[in-house]
Amino acid sequence: MMLDGGRDLEPGAENRRQTMAATDPDGWEPAARADWMKPQFTAGPGQIRRYGSDFAVEPATAILCDPPSWFGLRASRARGGLSNLWGSAVLPYARSDLTGWPVRAEELAPHYRAVAEFLPISGRADALEMLFPDLPMTGRVPIQPAPQAAELLRRAEDRTDALAKHGVVIGMARQAVAPGCRLCGMCLHGCPYGLIWSGRHALAQLQALPGFDYRPGDIVRSVAEDVDGAIVTLETGQELRGDRIFLAAGVLETARIVLRSQSGPGELTLRDSQHGFLPMLHRWPNRTRPDRGRFHTLPQAFAELRAADMSPHLVHAQIYSWNEHFPRDLVDNYGRVPILVPLLRGLARRLMVAQIFLHSDHSHGMTLQLAPDGRLKVGLQRNPETDAKLRAAARRLAKAFSALGLFSLPQALRIEPPGSSFHVGASLPMHHAPQAGQSDLLGRPHGWSRLHVVDASSLPAIPATTITLSVMANAHRIATNAP
Ligand SMILES: Cc1cc2nc3c(=O)[nH]c(=O)nc-3n(C[C@H](O)[C@H](O)[C@H](O)COP(=O)(O)OP(=O)(O)OC[C@H]3O[C@@H](n4cnc5c(N)ncnc54)[C@H](O)[C@@H]3O)c2cc1C
Ligand code: SF4
């Protein structure tokens, strides 16, 4: 039995999607293309919108009481959750980042493999494979990189030694995208063809299984257990009984449900992977206009930085080539003098951006408490080294990227608000001997035996590389091993 928020794309938006998907991108009218993008451009600050809809993100005030302006994380009550919006970048955690974890890399490895069997993963075997042996890429098919990215990847392959001197490895991005990408460039607006993987897709397969009971709209308020089994109480007050509960409501809702359900610790600490955007200009000339033709706008390349003097953990960067946000952002920020606008649009065609992520040890934390009205109250646990670490990482990467012909602007690094990476969790971290506020190796919070927390909340920490594949692998491990 799966209880779920279950919100869906509104019928009007779904009809628009189907109309777009019925035609090859070359057949789209320019106005249809512009209309598909427009709602995303008009989204408010911090609001993530896809398919012209807000169905997949709850407003901050739905979950939080007095949400602070610096807090970038949001919850979802959609069918498929935030995977309706995500960037689909996938990597396992590097084994070196699992050192000291109560769950060993060898124990997680088979579950990465199991997830990689049903999750479509695009990409190819390249230099990154040495760092991430738990996601072998042989036999996978890459999405054709955009021309700027293809040139960058070609240069990275030629200059692996120069990169290695800076502790950097670069390879093609791995994306959870089904084969057949139409290179329509709408990735940041909702894939009209539904090729970017979403939990909705897995759910549709599960629903075809006999005995699988999906209950959209059954919002969970709290959980409990007794000698006979586990009990879920819905917002309606209805109680449902079962043998055990696997809780994966996204880290905010999971925290809220756990805090409402137990008399234990009144506060949990959420750990974040802090991120920032590093702008870079490529020195090589464009052979073709990067804003014309067919291309995708998901992350194009991954760069991993290992710098032991700076951190024992990997720094992860996702590199984007031209997308329609580049000229808009440049003109919005610097285009007050109209004569500059064409210049800025031209500059945008040389722009590439690295989204840099830090390990949670170097990032701010966030405290979560239950407010009297049942929502969460969030506080900032400031890490004094975060900004300096991110700037140092940007400078290191900038030096390495310069060997590829990229002129980086570390002084223009845009540091994003805590939580806004959505690479967040470890609020009930697994531990060999869990205390209050921790869970055991099967995700059971201290004192519980039938409740398994299987989303990012039970990860012991948040390494810098992408989070979702590891959350899925850990959930698969717990579900496989649960009594
Ligand atoms: C813009 C964006 C880009 C991202 N890009 C990437 C990326 O490139 N790579 C990556 O690894 N990660 C990325 N992420 C993060 C990724 O989307 C999340 O890690 C992932 O979706 C978390 O999955 P989850 O199932 O744990 O939680 P969610 O996606 O939050 O899903 C929660 C589920 O629980 C249900 N639910 C919630 N509350 C209740 C309740 N009270 N009762 C019943 N059901 C409930 C919801 O309906 C939903 O089905 C991105 C996120 C965003 C927003
Ligand atoms: S380019 Fe992006 S939006 Fe277009 S088909 Fe490929 S994945 Fe989907």
Automatic annotation (TrEMBL):
Cofactors (names): FAD
Gene3D superfamilies in the record: FAD/NAD(P)-binding domain
SUPFAM superfamilies: FAD/NAD(P)-binding domain
PROSITE patterns: 4FE4S_FER_1, 4FE4S_FER_2
Residues passing through the membrane, by range: none
Keyword flag Iron-sulfur: yes
GO molecular function terms listed in the Swiss-Prot or TrEMBL record: iron-sulfur cluster binding; metal ion binding; oxidoreductase activity
InterPro entries named among the record's database cross-references: 4Fe4S_Fe-S-bd, 4Fe4S_Fe_S_CS, FAD/NAD-bd_sf, GMC_OxRtase_C, P2Ox-like
Protein name: Choline dehydrogenase-like flavoprotein
Natural source organism: Albidovulum inexpectatum
